[in-house]
């Protein structure tokens, strides 16, 4: 198979490229002008410029699949400029790919595009949310909805589209776990806010396997939750991480402090969360290598 990947240089993308290469796939990395060096062995490049709508459709002719993982990081202070970059980086790039693929004579069979569990309601912690759950409120839900809507031209053209709603990825190289490790190792980790907010997570290994599964399984389309089946409250996540690290977890972090320090971003990403379940993945026969939280944290930390 020939697969093009947007966001191949990111935390998940790098490991996805390595995983697909071991399976004998030929990878084409979508790169922006001036960044033609891939950093990978035996990877071809396709130059594109999503901000300006530039992508030569001839380069996508005959590909078997397109996987898109790119987008501005959502961490940092959410100024209006930052929020516009978060939205535009996802919607413009996805729209460009979807509309270009729709015009091809030899279209890819599948377009697997990242989305996020921020699409769901982040306040009702007790209700497990599968792919049929409605859109929640707030900025991230709006981004998720617009991001997924941008794939529609590909679906309208007969391409199987999978909107991969990815949860918290456990990896020491980036994301939430990396940020949590320093205070925990110093012995000052603790429950954040009420501790009741849900953390729906997945290991990097399983998210890479799940992306591959979504791409190759013809029965999967539309939204698919890429999370492990063992979502945890912040309190349980904190206690489990402390146990795995052998560090105390008795110093709480008040919600007010998080709100004052990080504003809207902190209230959305740190003090809120959704109990998301991987119904469609499990029904399709996907087997998680690390389904339990303690095993997931041990696996992630073993790679540090």
Structural description of this entry:
With 304 residues, the protein is an alpha/beta fold. The protein has a domain at 2-166 and 204-226 and 277-286: Rossmann fold. It is built from 10 helices and 12 strands. The chain has helices spanning 11-22, 80-102, 139-149, 152-156, 175-185, 204-216, 234-245, 255-269, 279-283, 293-302; strands at residues 2-6, 26-31, 43-49, 54-55, 65-68, 110-116, 160-166, 168-170, 198-199, 201-203, 222-226, 232-233. An 8-stranded mixed beta sheet has the order 4-3-2-1-5-6-7-11, with helices on both faces. A hairpin with a 4-residue loop joins β3 (43-49) and β4 (54-55). α1 (11-22) crosses α6. The longest helix has 23 residues, at 80-102. The protein is globular, with a radius of gyration of 19 Å. The mean pLDDT is 95.
Could you give a short description of this structure?
With 304 residues, this protein is α/β, with parallel strands linked by helices.
Layout of helices and strands, plus pairs?
Blueprint lengths: L1 E5 L4 H12 L3 E6 L11 E7 L4 E2 L9 E4 L11 H23 L7 E7 L22 H11 L2 H5 L3 E7 L1 E3 L4 H11 L12 E2 L1 E3 H13 L5 E5 L5 E2 H12 L9 H15 L9 H5 L9 H10 L2
Parallel strand pairs: 1-2, 1-5, 2-3, 5-6, 6-7, 7-11, 8-10
Antiparallel strand pairs: 3-4, 9-12
Protein name: TIGR01777 family oxidoreductase
InterPro entries: DUF1731, Epimerase_deHydtase, NAD(P)-bd_dom_sf, SDR39U1
Family: Belongs to the NAD(P)-dependent epimerase/dehydratase family. SDR39U1 subfamily.
